[in-house]
Amino acid sequence: MITTERSLIVFKPDAVQRGIVGEILSRFEKTGLKIVGTKMLQPSYDHYFHHYENIGKMISRRGQKTFDVTLSMMNVGPVIAFVLEGVEAVSLIRKMVGTTEPKSALPGTIRGDYAHMSFIHADENNIGVPNIIHASGDVSEAELEIAHWFSEAELFDYETVHEKFTQAKKK
Fold first, then answer.
1. Res 45: pLDDT
2. Residue-wise pLDDT tens digits, 92-121
3. How many CB atoms lie within 10 A of CB 7?
4. What is the CATH number of domain 4-154?
5. What pLDDT does 169 receive?
6. Residues in the chain with pLDDT < 70?
7. Which of 114, 100, 112 is nearest to 17 (CA)?
8. What 8-state DSSP symbol labels residue 115?
9. How far is C-alpha 97 from the geometric centre of its chain's CA atoms?
10. Is 148 a catalytic residue?
């Protein structure tokens, strides 16, 4: 049975302002993931609170200071949110994105190729870590995040010509 999943991707303000969204998005498309939803927005504090704490438990796990500097960084400009779909999409995307700390991300991953800051440097300078992108951590988190960022009317079901090769669908 094919395990098709959806995952939320948020290109953070540093990716948008650097003009690298298209370049990175093409990496996902080249693996066979398809875009089923997209929009540019500048979320409110309440939207981010729900995303980072109610879903992600950031304050609970990492503390109020980490939450505050993350929100400060996220509010410097708009973000671009995508929902990507494909076979085992959540784990594939996490592998492609790399670890949360850019300094520790392997070359070839998105964070390893486009960012380099360490947690220590960010902490010493009281800033959030500009790590380009958010990707859902697991399937259940993806479902909650997608429902928070997108309405059903903003998500599309269609078939690409590549699905035959990337999802082993028989015609």
1. 92
2. 999 999 999 999 999 999 999 999 999 889
3. 28
4. 3.30.70.141
5. 61
6. 1-2, 168-171
7. 114
8. -
9. 8
10. no
For residue 34, the number of C-alpha atoms closer than 13 Å in the C-beta half-sphere is: 17
Q: What are the pLDDT digits (tens) for 65-80?
A: 888 988 999 999 999 9
Out of 47, 134, 148, 162, the active site residue is 134
Q: Which pLDDT score is estimated for 14?
A: 96
Structural domain boundaries in the chain: 4-154
Q: How far apart are CA 83 and CA 152, in angstroms?
A: 12
Token code pair at residue 29: 């498309």
* Helices 89-97 and 21-30: angle between axes, nearest 10 degrees: 130
Residue 162 contacts residue 32 (beta carbons within 8 Å): yes
β-partners of residue 39 are: 81
Give the closest residue to 131 by CA, choosing from 83, 47, 87, 69: 69
Q: How far is it, in rounded angstroms, from Cα 58 to Cα 109?
A: 23
What is the Cα–Cα distance from 20 to 107, expressed in whole angstroms?
Answer: 17
